[in-house]
Amino acid sequence: PTYSRKLSRVRCNVENSSTKGEPEPRNALLKIAWYGSELLGIAASFLRSPSPSDVENDLKLATDGSGAAELDRATVVEAIKEDFARSYFVTGNITLDAYEEDCEFADPAGSFKGLRRFKRNCTNFGLLIDKSNMNLTRWDDFEDKGIGHWRFNCIMSFPWRPILSATGYTEYYFNAETGRVCRHVEHWNVPKMALFKQILRPSRVGRRKSGG
């Protein structure tokens, strides 16, 4: 058990370092769009008050009260699946207890550390969306991680009503000492630039509205 915990710490540290060492995206526009979306979400949070359904208390894990330092893997996985049912990517309704506070969140465009920042980004992104649908289509368990395969689509609230649609999977790396997620790595089956183009493309609804 001690060896496994040391191995997990080394794995998380090595992977965190490797993420930082990755070269900058070849297309600078992608990087601008990545940070721009975060800033746009922050701006939206000031311009629009969240509805009562958007505001939820921090979700906590149900524990047995034993005070054990290490969480049961099955409990954490179940919390992640429940978060998918709440479309946590666009609502921010995430079970905080299932993650380390300094958890790394990464996708093909970049990465950062901080659970609260991730929750804030997800909540703010949701303010830019009128309708969304997110489904967990498959879950795979491995020794040090779980992989959730998902399908996502949404209609954004911009005047031209763009539609985003994608599939992908997220890797959830578990800290062997605490049982919590220490890395959350998204993989999109649609290239990020293709998603960016989807944002710029008016939907049929948007074209009808603009045309009167």
TrEMBL record:
Protein name: Uncharacterized protein
